[in-house]
């Protein structure tokens, strides 16, 4: 079994992070959508930009010397906007390791809850988050319209922040 190294992302990781995000989107989300002209190029650009702007708040997973996944958070909020694992490294525990580490970082900062969203039709992702202890809190359309065809699921997990006091036996 390959060992996964988790570390803070650095600027040189951003291009690979964008590539992984697009490949994961193409495999997991694109099949749920009605493809429109220029959709792929637009999404590739959006995800590359997200990686380029968000690497300072991200952690990456390395396996056998290769960056295979990443997870980021929004500063000063307990929100995880991105968790991506390269398609050929999915279902190997990488996403769970990244998520657990990000949750630990939030707990160290005193967070009591963490939030994230994923497309409602991406059942595989919803089930993954439920296995990680997340609960579905809401179903949302774009701009809050629940009548839209593309919906996202808002999930939340209760964390156990460190209080600074030692636990007594």
Provide an overview of this structure.
With 169 residues, the protein is of the alpha+beta class. The protein has a single domain (4-158), classed as Aminopeptidase, CATH 3.40.630.30. It is built from 4 helices and 8 strands, in the order βααββββαβαββ. It has helices spanning 14-28, 39-54, 94-108, 123-131, and strands at residues 4-8, 58-63, 66-72, 79-80, 82-85, 113-119, 135-141, 151-158. It has a 4-stranded antiparallel β-sheet with strand order 1-2-3-5, with helices on both faces. It has a 4-stranded mixed β-sheet with strand order 4-6-8-7, covered by helices on one side. 27% of the residues are buried. The mean pLDDT is 90.
Supply Rg: 16 Å
Bulk shape: globular
CATH class: Alpha Beta
**CATH topology descriptor:** Aminopeptidase
Q: Care to count the β-strands?
A: 8
CATH architecture: 3-Layer(aba) Sandwich
Keywords for this structure?
alpha+beta, single chain, four-stranded mixed beta sheet, 8 strands, globular, 4 helices, four-stranded antiparallel beta sheet, Aminopeptidase, 169 residues
């Amino acid at each position: 079994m390959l060992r996964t190294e988790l570390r803070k992302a650095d600027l040189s990781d951003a291009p690979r992070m964008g590539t992984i995000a697009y490949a994961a989107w193409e495999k997991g989300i694109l099949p749920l959508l009605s493809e429109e002209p220029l959709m792929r190029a637009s999404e590739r650009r959006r995800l590359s930009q997200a990686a380029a702007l968000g690497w300072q708040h991200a952690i990456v997973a390395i396996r056998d010397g290769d960056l295979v996944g990443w997870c980021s958070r929004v500063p000063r909020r307990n929100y995880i906007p991105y968790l991506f694992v390269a398609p050929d490294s999915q279902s190997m525990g990488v996403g769970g390791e990244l998520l657990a580490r990000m949750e630990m970082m939030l707990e160290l900062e005193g967070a009591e809850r963490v939030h994230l969203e994923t497309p409602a039709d991406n059942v595989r992702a919803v089930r993954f988050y439920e296995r990680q202890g997340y609960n579905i809190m809401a179903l949302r359309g774009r701009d809050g319209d629940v009548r839209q065809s593309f919906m996202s699921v808002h999930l939340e997990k209760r964390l156990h922040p460190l209080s600074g006091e030692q636990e007594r036996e």
